Amino acid sequence: MNKTIKMMAVSLLAASLLIPGLTSAAEMSMKVDYSKFTMMEKNGETWVPLRQIAKSLGYTVNWSKADGITLTKEIMMEEMKDMEVKDMEMKPKMYMITLMPGNKDFMVGMDKMMLTHAPMIMKNTTYVTKDFIEKYLVNPMMMDM
Q: Which of 28, 41, 97, 143 has the fewest CB atoms within 10 Å of its CB?
């Protein structure tokens, strides 16, 4: 009987720690309604306008000739205080992506990454693959920020 009570207590504790994390993840989950944007098919990939979609997801978009395109967004992240689970709190972190049209290399925070397809400019608009949007803007990878 004592073993059963301990097992139930451990299960209850584990569930109580897991549920807030699931709520936070659900709140951070974003969706893109691609029907609102002009999409293009090229080389078997779907290309979408970066600036419009990034702005619709709450990113600030900046461009400079020297640095290319910089996307920034403040994202709430769970952070531990004093390495104890009970001391978790939400803190804002700046998520930043820097990329240059025509170049496969880009930065996520301070981490250099490589795309399969370089962003391209068509009709004065920068396009990226739909995969890039889903992987790096809809579900941001939290690197060294």
A: 41
